[in-house]
Design goal:
About 15% of the residues lie in helices and about 30% in strands. By secondary structure, it is α+β, with helices and mostly antiparallel strands. The protein has a single domain, classed as glutathione-dependent formaldehyde- activating enzyme (gfa). The strands form 3 sheets. Strands 8-4-3-9 form a 4-stranded mixed sheet. A 3-stranded antiparallel sheet has the order 5-6-7, with no helix packed on it. A two-stranded antiparallel sheet has the order 1-2. It is globular. It binds zinc ion (2 copies). One zinc ion binds near residues 24, 26 and 28. One zinc ion binds next to loops.
């Protein structure tokens, strides 16, 4: 898989398929992506760590990477999901083939947002499901 930021100066090559693909409805990811719901591909941190610039550390235990040129989102990581990096689906060139498998933080979803699927919906972080997917 390949990904690139808004301007194209930052590019990622992902050699392995993602562990999982998940929506995140938390307000942090909404604010960071600017979208009413975020969706991410979970990949091995070792596969992308040397392709990422220095992270921005906002909330405790959260790292977020943006393009140094256009400041578009590139990736995020969460201390409670060790060795995983979350790449926003919107920047992945093959996003049409990456079907989400779960909703995390469904309890924080915007009330007018209706996604008609039968995927598992975790009210909070879904950390157990996400960590299980990564093993
Ligand atoms: Zn850029
Ligand atoms: Zn989130």
């Amino acid at each position: 898989m390949t990904a690139r930021c808004y301007c194209g100066a930052s590019r990622l090559t992902l050699d392995k398929p993602p562990f999982t693909v998940a929506y995140c409805h938390c307000s942090d990811c909404r604010r960071w992506t600017g979208a009413p719901v975020a969706a991410f591909a979970a990949v091995d941190r070792a596969d992308v760590s040397d392709q990422l610039p220095a992270p921005y550390r906002g909330a405790p235990g959260v790292e977020r990477w943006t393009c140094p040129t256009c400041h578009g989102p590139l990736a995020a990581a969460f201390a409670y999901l060790p060795d995983q990096v979350y790449v926003p689906l919107g920047i992945i060139d093959q996003a049409d083939r990456l079907l989400p498998e779960m909703h995390s933080h469904a309890g924080s979803a915007l009330p007018w947002l209706h996604i008609a699927d039968d995927l598992p919906r975790a009210q909070a972080s879904a950390r157990d499901d996400l960590n299980r997917a990564a093993t």
